[in-house]
Amino acid sequence: MSSVPPTDDLDLGFVDRLVPAENAEDLYEHAPCGYLSTLPDGTIIKVNETLLAWMGYSRQELVGRVRFADLLSAGGRIYHETHYAPLLSMQGQVREIALDMVRRDGTRVPVLVNSILVQTEDGKPEVIRTSVFNATSRREYERELLRAREHAESSEARVRELAQTLQTSLMPPSLPDIAGLDLGAAYRPAGRGDEVGGDFYDVFQTGSDDWAVVIGDVCGKGAQAAVVTALVRYTARAAAIRSKRPSAVLNMVNDGLLQHGGERFCTALYLRVRTAGGKAPRITFASAGHPMPMQISGDSVSPVGEPGMLLGVVERPILSDSSLQLDPGEALFCYTDGLTEARRGEDLFGDERLVDLLRAKGGRGADEVAHTTVDEAVRFQDGVARDDIAAVVVAAPRI
Predict the structure, then answer these.
(1) Residue 61: pLDDT band with limits 50, 70, 90
(2) Does 180 share its domain with 127?
(3) Stated pTM of the model
């Protein structure tokens, strides 16, 4: 179990005003559920006797030394990083999250966890308050779920299955059927697919005949990249309710990344697609450090739009909105850099091969264009992708 190095200058002076008053201390210590308070990074700063008794630790072993996530099982730590922590950061609270905690003797106890995020007056995270309920007697299907998670960690094949399940949770299960629009998407993980990648895409409705398409690439791989991927995806969905301008949505995503902390950054391309009144699709889009989309019009294939800055690096990235209309038979090809940076020895797949490939596929269905293009990039690498590849095609069907 990893731990936080003890430090003499850990400032816990503000804890007294964030935990129960002195006359309620006995109720806090011996409540029928566990209580703990942590810093925003998860470091435990207060824990009650009930939880200590369940877990078999002394107060000195936990306070100021251990993070909450360190008390979880391996599968629980992955779920904490990919779902629990992003939801808490975005919503300020999470409720009835099923996890496994590991006692000092190595045995496990299933629990239900509720947490709230307390912020300072200027909106900065200050402390996380968590209640823990023993869920040993929960219904059988929940115990089956926990056993399945443990079993998934028992072998390399099961780990790969878990990674694929987590990756799938970061993508839409299927693309929507939109009148007047032809959509296609493809994704290929790097290597054998046994690690969660940073590439993602999403398609969701923002209004009547109004849709959003997002494709992005988070720096890194594994659980930490999945944390940022989930944060970007859910923040974009929330931001799309507040603004219709792609650059404004990406700016709100940038704010979410900076508030989340860490050193993760992300590229993203956000498209607003309008199909009202049976007219040709009108697309407004903005890029944040992402490869520019390729417009396919007959034999003509060319990048469109204005490049923008990465997300999660500076407070106000320079982002620009661009607009275009797709006439019947035209398409917009959006992709991550794992496609053009596919490598065979010293040779890159590159932009020229991509343009030639898209020119040869002009007029075909969106799903066919997405999948065959990604397949060609993988074949170029002798069948093993060196990096994740994602592609989304937005097309106007021929009349």
Answers:
(1) very high
(2) no
(3) 0.60
